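Lab notebook page, bench 4
Experiment: in silico fold of construct C2
Operator: M.H.
Input chain length: 164 residues
Purpose: comparison with the prior construct
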Amino acid sequence: MAKTCVPFRGTKEQEEALLKVIENHREQKGALMPILQEAQEIYGYLPIEVQKIIALQLDIPLEEVYGVATFYSQFTLNPKGQYKISVCLGTACYVKGSGDVYDRLQQRLGIKGGECTPDGKFSLEACRCIGACGLAPVLTINDEVYGRLTVDDVDTILAKYADK
């Protein structure tokens, strides 16, 4: 399955906000981390286009920006969808079939974990225990919890969000 690519949709207002953030931190020692944190707040993720602006404005190699952005788990290089699907792969959920549910979601959405559908509607990720072991296997879509799942439930659940 080829990696899906969601086109960058940054606005002029977002870029202006980013440039202001860079200017506010430029002289600060260790400025890259707070700039990346605030850039992710502005855009929701750190696409290569944003990393290039940061590298250019700070006069540092793009590789340095990318290295920091990929080293720390708080940063994401992929956008999140309108509907953020998170499948618990903790022990209780996994032994009850959450791995199969996760695989079915990847198949149905045409994306891998950590990716977003090209239309920006769904993103998919795996997580560890969410504290609903009694409902295993569990997934969440935004703040909605779905429990006692089977792979056959995937299409029904996705259909609830397809027309929203």
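Observations: Helices lie at 12-25, 32-43, 48-58, 62-71, 91-95, 98-109, 154-162. The mean pLDDT is 93.
Next step: discuss at group meeting.
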